[in-house]
Amino acid sequence: MAALLEVKNLGISFGGLRAVDDFEVSIKKGQLYGLIGPNGAGKTTVFNLLTGVYKPSEGIITLDGVNITGLKTIEINKAGIARTFQNIRLFKELSVIDNVKAGLHNHYKYATIEGILRLPNYFKMEKAMTEKAMELLKVFELEKEADYLAANLPYGKQRKLEIARALATEPKLLLLDEPAAGMNPNETMELMDTIRFVRDSFDMTILLIEHDMKLVSGICEELTVLNFGRILTQGATGTVLNDPQVITAYLGE
Ligand SMILES: Nc1ncnc2c1ncn2[C@@H]1O[C@H](COP(=O)(O)OP(=O)(O)OP(=O)(O)O)[C@@H](O)[C@H]1O
């Protein structure tokens, strides 16, 4: 089966620094894939390249057979990649449900003039979006908090809401940047269940960056290890985590 995400020879420099060099990965549909490596190895830069925040100096990114290299972030999102951030980036002053509805705007369209004049199509779309957003909130057990301000949710729930908003854009590939950052062990365990659940019930393909090795070994099927911007090794999780090179790279932090 062709890979959902196929990356070849991806690279970028910042001034003299080669932040990512000759990066490649092949991720199959439905896979739970991990990108790991010591601090500053280039993991977030890979996400920024995949999502069009940075334009690659070289390389090709193919999503579901479509070359998305060099497209803008919004175009890449429409092509099917959504992400969450290392430091949660919600619309904190909006309600929980409005955060999810913001994600839905990719697929529900009414003309601005219909919105201004409150024409029937506007109400129809708004109703459909509210229903869809509530469905997603139920999946993440956030429906009771639909009208809360996002800023007032506890940390673990903010993470869930960020994932719900990303899923609202109906991606083919979901990128999670350190989803367990700042979580206590119980929240991390719950997050692992949530990620597995998202993969299974949305038939989602997930690429995640994570430092928490319990999470990585618990849910990732394959891994790529980055070190100083280059691939140190990649393959099945068990094999990679027992690779002496990987252990040395982490101990050398
Ligand atoms: N916009 C930028 N301008 C200059 N240097 C950058 C930029 N973005 C990242 N870098 C550098 O690229 C390197 C890789 O950074 P990156 O944030 O991708 O690492 P990381 O593996 O995600 O690290 P961490 O685990 O600490 O989040 C670092 O040396 C960083 O300082």
Number of separate structural domains: 2
Poorly predicted tracts of residues: none
CATH fold title of the largest domain? Rossmann fold
Largest sheet: 6 strands, mixed
Overall average residue pLDDT: 90
- H-E order: EEEHEEHEHHHHEHEHEEHH
Structural commentary:
Helix 3 packs across helix 5, helix 3 runs parallel beside helix 6 (155-168) and helix 5 (120-139) crosses helix 6 (155-168). Strands 6-7-8-3-9-10 form a 6-stranded mixed β-sheet, with helices on both faces. A 4-stranded antiparallel β-sheet has the order 2-1-4-5, with helices on one face. A hairpin with a 2-residue loop joins strand 4 and strand 5. With 253 residues, the chain is of the alpha/beta class. The protein starts with a strand and ends with a helix. The chain contains 10 helices and 10 strands. The protein has 2 domains: 1-80 and 171-253, P-loop containing nucleotide triphosphate hydrolases (Rossmann fold, 3-Layer(aba) Sandwich); 94-170, no CATH class. The mean pLDDT is 90. It has helices at residues 43-50, 73-79, 96-104, 112-116, 120-139, 155-168, 185-202, 213-219, 237-241, 244-251; strands at residues 5-14, 17-27, 32-36, 58-63, 66-67, 81-84, 173-177, 205-209, 222-227, 230-236. Bound molecules: adenosine-5'-triphosphate (ATP). This is ABC transporter ATP-binding protein. GO terms for molecular function: ATP binding; ATP hydrolysis activity; L-isoleucine transmembrane transporter activity; L-phenylalanine transmembrane transporter activity; L-valine transmembrane transporter activity.
